[in-house]
Write a structure and sequence with these properties.
- By secondary structure, the chain is mainly α.
- The protein has two domains: 11-64, no CATH class; 85-162, no CATH class.
- It has helices spanning 11-31, 34-39, 47-60, 66-75, 85-93, 103-117, 121-132.
- The longest helix is centred in the N-terminal third of the chain and has 21 residues, at 11-31.
- The protein is globular, with a radius of gyration of 19 Å.
- It starts with 10 loop residues before the first helix and ends in a 37-residue tail after the last helix.
- The model has no long low-confidence stretch (mean pLDDT 88).
Length: 169
């Protein structure tokens, strides 16, 4: 890994990857599969089970903080969203969270939005990320994101009246 020029060659992270692979292997050996380990936390449609799983993942795996744990859980198909910096930036600008680093409040807001619109939180996650991330998204009809960190394209935004960052075109 250290010789691969396409890999980040940060020794602590490489050692963390090796350790995490061993932890993953231990889990599979102990539970028969990683899925069974995840299911051992109970009904994963309940907040308490999801929270316990998140905490357990962060304790077991290196370099896995709350944001990454939520991202990992989302990728496993669980009913969470990843409150990354893009999502937190948008929620903050809309006044839905008071601090861009308030991950737990961002998670609650995401769930509230999903309930109100009647769609899976994964759909809400996709829309927010595409709305606030650089890069073309043909299915969304965008040649770039809208609520960008630098140079947001407020003239394209449909909710500027609620935004603390409002700018003129």
């Amino acid at each position: 890994m250290m010789n691969d020029k396409t890999t980040i060659r940060y020794e602590r992270k490489i050692k963390g990857c090796i350790k995490n692979a061993k932890v993953f292997d231990e889990i599979v050996r102990g539970y028969g599969s990683f899925g069974r380990y995840v299911e051992s936390f109970g009904n994963l449609n309940e907040e308490d089970a999801l929270e316990t799983l998140k905490i357990n993942l962060m304790k077991k795996f290196e370099f896995l903080g709350p944001r990454t744990a939520y991202h990992f859980m989302l990728d496993m198909g669980l009913n969470v969203w990843k409150p990354d910096r893009v999502i937190c930036r948008i929620l903050y600008r809309l006044g839905l969270i008071d601090d861009k680093n308030d991950i737990e409040r961002a998670v609650k807001v995401g769930k509230e939005i999903a309930i109100k619109v009647g769609l899976p939180i994964r759909y809400i996650d996709i829309v927010f990320v595409k709305y606030g991330q650089r890069g073309a998204e043909e299915p969304f009809g965008l040649d770039d994101g809208i609520c960008l960190e630098k140079n947001p394209r407020c003239y394209l935004c449909g909710v500027t009246e609620y935004c603390i960052r409002r700018t003129e075109p």
